[in-house]
Amino acid sequence: MPMPSRVTIAAAVLGTAVVLEPVHALEMPGCEALEQWAAELKPDETFAPVPEVKLSNLLQDDLAVPLFGVPALEWSNSDILQVRKGLNQCRAQTKDEAAGRRLYEAIKAIDGSRRALAWRQRALTRLERTVDRLEGYRPSRRLAGQLALARDVLLGEPADLEVHGLRQMPNWIGQMEEAGGYLTREELAPLATRLAEREAEMRAAFAEDDEAFEALQEELAGVPVSPGGLTTLRELERSPVLRKVSPGQLDAFRAGVQRKRSQIQAEMRRQELARAQQVRQEQARRSTQAQRPAARSGGGQAGAAPSGGMPPLGITALR
After folding, report:
1. pLDDT tens, residue by residue, 41-66
2. Does the structure show a pLDDT above 50 at 250?
3. In this structure, are residues 161 and 169 in contact, taking their beta carbons and an 8 Å threshold?
4. Which of 29, 85, 92, 316 has its CA 20 to 30 A from that of 301?
């Protein structure tokens, strides 16, 4: 049941509620048919055409559609009141007490299902207004991710923040998920399509920014592992391109900068240690060279008389 053919959507700026309208006008049968229908009631039996909507067994398609021509999920509030009115009139006219009791029980069953059907209308109204607002917001990377997340929720897929580059769950996502439980996939699909189309428009507009970000990533990869590289990293961190990227891209870039900075700092420490080692080695070499001349100046044979000097004591000189 495609949405455009059965939903009247007023302009969001007017704040007009969305109302489920049946594709065809409800057909009201006569009393005999209504009495036979009421006899099919099983008071303790309900069914859930969608997760959050539980209806009387009388409203199952195989019982309601042949009689009224419209599935119960497509009944408007006026349709429900019309069916209720018909049951009441037949109950007032019948002389069969058992039939009257069955009609009365059918009225109670309809009243019990009326609230659930009304919640469907409210749920669709809420979702439509939320989608209207999302479409009207100023484009951003964050909003594009939120649109994709909202689309997944409407289609019953896992709400994965990381996949869409988001850091935290928007507070309205839970409300969308709850409202979606009152609607069929056929009703939710057009809303999901609107979100996907708006997201695609934003992604296309961001294509140029993506190219600039890729170029920035390449520039980061080419930063030399040298002290001058630290200055380059600080310049890259101030790039205006980073104001246009998604949170995920920004996190990835910052992580890349930190890795490069760590590499440069590690290399600087290595070089500093190498220079300190060279200084120690040079000092040791010079110390060794300074000790060698002193050792040579203190050498010679013990007791030897200096040339041209006096003979050693205790030795008489030959004359």
Report:
1. 999 899 999 999 999 999 999 999 99
2. yes
3. yes
4. 316
